[in-house]
Amino acid sequence: MKKANWLQSECGGLYYRGLCELTKDELVALVYGQNNIRNVTKQAVKHKTVRKVAFQLSYDGKLYNGTQESRDGLSVTEVLRNALKKSDLFVDGNEMIFCGRTDRGVSAENAVVSLFTKSRLDLEPNDSHETEYYTFAGIEFKRYLFRDSQFEIGKEDYNEIPYTRILNNILPEHIRIKGWAPVPDYFSARHSCIERCYKYQYEIGRIRVKDGNLLDKFNHGAEIIRSLDDFYYFSKHDNPKANYNFRISELFFNTCGDHIVMEIRSYSFIHNMVRKIFSWIRRYAETGRLDYRDIEPAEAEHLVFCGATYRHKLAYISG
After folding, report:
1. Nearest 5°: phi and psi at 130?
2. What is the pLDDT of residue 64?
3. Which UniProt keywords apply (predicted)?
4. Is the Cβ–Cβ distance between 281 and 222 less than 8 Å?
């Protein structure tokens, strides 16, 4: 029977209506179950409480639509959520907060995501905090203040559910949990972050610099970018609330084999900013052009999120 006729049959119609009643998460789990989470038997996790943790993870961005959920493709967030559900570690109503957004094709080495998950320990709430207000680019924000002791690994933490092992047994090989860290209840991988780092690696053979030293020209372009405090022309302009007025904390180039590598650090990045910065510096090195108009973002697959910095060092347990 042809596919269209089967869907019109009584059996096919029931199946189709059943699919229509599924949520997006359930459809993703069904369609990508064999390819994106391993087919293991779900077992109920014995737990006493719920706790806040931070996962450090790496992933191959070429296979995903970034960390943002959309209709355009499968995101890292969706695959991780499905693995948490499959392992019975998921907490209903929980929100997974990533330290930074990555687009389709962008990979990560040390991304951080914070969430509540189940715990086998009898823990007291880790919710002690103070607040302060700070100004970034002329706008006032509130942030939570914690103590170093709230991030320390306790003896009991080594008897915790082995989150890393359980999730890596379910997740596809191109998404790896590298470790988990105890964090306070009000900690946010995004809002508690004070600096983010990206690296962009590009083949030297694809760059056309006529005169002078290639690395010197790229680092001179980096010096120009470091002097800017308005990145309007380095964004996709898809967020009407975006703040373009700030400065980056670090930007430089070095070489690694037959590649040139850009490393950039900042408290904040706007959409497409890192890829457009590399594209502009390459254009400047090749042509000497100094204006900031008509900047096309460089290819996403060469960009890697390298890490997030917090006021308090996160202590990870690998098991």
Report:
1. -125, 170
2. 92
3. Isomerase
4. yes
d(C-alpha 317, C-alpha 263), whole Å: 27
- Phi, psi dihedral angles at 144 (to 5 degrees): -90, 145
- All domains in the chain, ordered by first residue: 15-34+43-191 (3.30.70.580), 194-307 (3.30.70.660)
Query: Are 25 and 82 within 8 A, CB to CB?
Result: yes
Give per-residue pLDDT as tens, 156-206. Answer: 999 999 999 999 999 999 999 999 999 999 999 999 999 999 999 999 999
Q: What tokens appear for 139 in the block? A: 């706008």
108 CB neighbour count, 10 Å cutoff? 26
Q: What is the pLDDT of residue 167?
A: 97
